[in-house]
Amino acid sequence: MAFIVWDEMYATGVASLDEQHKHLISLLNRMIEAIAQKKGKEELSYVIEEMGNYATTHFQAEETLMEKAGYSELEEHRLFHDAFIAKVDDFRLKYDACDEGLTAEVTIFLTNWLNEHLSIVNQEYIPFLKKAGKI
Fold this sequence. Notes:
The protein contains 5 helices and no strands. By secondary structure, the chain is an all-alpha fold. It has a single domain (27-131), classed as Four Helix Bundle (Hemerythrin (Met), subunit A), CATH 1.20.120. The N and C termini lie far apart (32 Å).
């Protein structure tokens, strides 16, 4: 059962980026489902690892497009990406230390990331991609 569903407010117009965003939503849904089934800790390692994979693949693709489009706020946008990567590294350390509150923390972080980064921050570069003919 999907708790968070894809919404066009998350769309960038770049199919590959949107598919990667959909994967992030699926990770959040996986965490919520696991928590509901009282299996959050069991899914946590997978979700954290996938968040790291997402960061590596997605951020590189997104930043490359922004660079090609001449997006003037690229460096500022990279700071958001760097913060996500740092948070994933923090989650890995907390997981290794058996932090009891980590399941909720990861779920809240992903929820906030979707609501703020995908629907607000990412929408700022879309006009640049369109103007540059990247969309």
